[in-house]
Design brief:
This protein is an alpha/beta fold and 377 residues long. It has one domain: Spore Coat Polysaccharide Biosynthesis Protein SpsA, Chain A. The protein contains twelve helices and seven strands. It has helices at residues 8-29, 40-58, 90-97, 147-162, 182-189, 197-200, 218-222, 250-258, 263-266, 278-290, 323-330, 349-361; strands at 76-83, 109-115, 166-173, 177-178, 247-249, 301-303, 340-342. Residues 60-70 and 363-377 have low confidence and may be disordered. It is a single-pass type II membrane protein. GO terms for molecular function: glycosyltransferase activity. Keywords: Glycoprotein, Glycosyltransferase, Membrane, Transferase, Transmembrane, Transmembrane helix.
Length: 377
């Protein structure tokens, strides 16, 4: 007598065949697991670094620079690169910092790089201003988390400790490009250009960071960690959003690395990642509450949000590049023009370098075809 096959065999076979389909749809329907929050060892490392930075100006080795002309030394701009991919535009920034190997501006800036250590093997320091010693001790970063706040604070702290003459701290990403020459940027920030623009517009030594208190998504962003989570440290009426990239004065940089109270709230993980961009919330909220008059209220970095996707701004590709685009990216309704811009694809490097080479051959300052453009262009 032949026994009939078990009724479970077809069922098990069907289940096994269905598993790949189940896994596929599950991965596309369910949200990804939240990234880990800052670990206690990382927090303690940061706290030690921030205390060192806070102590630098508490016990200065020499009298700080307060006004141009008060000392033989020149104030400097610290450029802070926050990156987790290769520095594709390093050659362009090299041209920005060292046009025609200029000796005149070599002592007017410093460069610091925070590179996610988990991808560092793919971020090879190209040398020059991006030499290995410009890479600070870094921690892993995750989009939409407080790790990006921590990374920016590390950069500021490292720049404060490294050089007491760093008076401005400009945060940029690996996707940013300069729109003007270094000399133009420096003169504009330190008021020594012909237009005296900063002094005339009442912007003397202010931080350039976007601060917005009217936004249709403001409440969603405020409650991204849950209802009533941010109080009492951060009340909704004091909550602000703004730019991820900014230029801070040394005074504000010191305030940022000393801050502890708001950090306790902004470091908390978000329940709604689609509404949570901590680095765009923490810095505008903190500075607008402690020193609103010390902030210009706008950023010097131009970003195109007209066709953003999943929280990412428009990415420019080589087919879009032209001198006219550079002119348009500079245009601003504020007292100063935009001096940097993002976001550019890596293959934009070659055409941008060709534009810079053309300007260099014509013996013009590296302003991307300035054409007698004033500071308002």
């Amino acid at each position: 007598m032949i026994s009939s096959p078990s009724p479970w065999i077809p069922t098990l076979t069907l289940l096994l065949l269905s598993l790949p389909i189940i896994f596929f749809f599950t991965s596309h329907i369910l949200p990804p697991p939240p990234p880990p929050i800052l670990s206690l060892p990382d927090e303690l490392d940061d706290l030690t670094l921030f205390r060192r930075a806070a102590a630098v100006d508490s016990h200065p080795t020499h009298k700080p620079i307060s006004r141009l002309g008060s000392t033989n030394r020149k104030p400097k701009i610290a450029f802070l690169f926050l990156t987790n991919t290769p520095l594709h535009f390093a050659p362009l920034w090299e041209r920005f910092f060292n046009p025609n190997n200029s000796v005149q501006i070599k002592n007017l800036y410093n460069v610091y790089v925070h590179s996610d250590p988990t991808v560092k093997p793919y971020v090879k320091p190209p040398g020059g201003v991006f030499s290995q010693d410009r890479f600070i001790p870094a921690k892993q970063t995750f989009r939409g988390t407080a790790t990006l706040i921590a990374a920016a604070r590390r950069l500021i702290a490292a720049a404060i400790i490294d050089d007491p003459d760093n008076m401005f701290f400009t945060l940029v990403s690996q996707h940013c490009i300069p729109l003007y020459s270094f000399q133009f940027v420096y003169n504009s920030l330190f008021e020594i250009n012909d237009h005296q623009v900063a002094e005339l517009k009442g912007l003397k030594y202010k931080s350039f960071i976007e601060i917005i208190d009217q936004d249709v998504n403001l409440w969603d962003r405020y409650t991204a960690r849950g209802n009533n989570v941010m109080t009492p440290e951060v009340k909704f009426e004091n909550f602000r959003v703004g730019s991820q990239f900014f230029t801070l004065t040394r005074r504000h940089g010191l305030m940022v690395v000393k801050e502890r109270r708001l950090w306790k709230k902004f470091r908390l993980p978000c329940l709604r990642p689609q509404s949570c961009y901590p680095e765009e919330h923490y810095f505008p909220t903190f500075l607008s509450n402690v020193d609103p008059d010390g902030c210009a209220g706008y950023t010097l970095t131009r970003v195109n949000w007209t066709d953003s996707v999943n929280g990412h701004p428009h990415t420019y590709y080589p087919s879009e590049l032209s001198p006219e685009l550079i002119f348009n990216l500079r245009r601003s309704s504020f007292a100063l023009p935009y001096m940097f811009a993002r976001k550019f694809s890596p293959d934009c490097l070659k055409p941008l370098m060709e534009m810079a080479d053309e300007v260099s051959r014509n013996q013009l300052s590296w302003n991307f075809f300035q054409h007698n453009c004033t500071y308002r262009c």
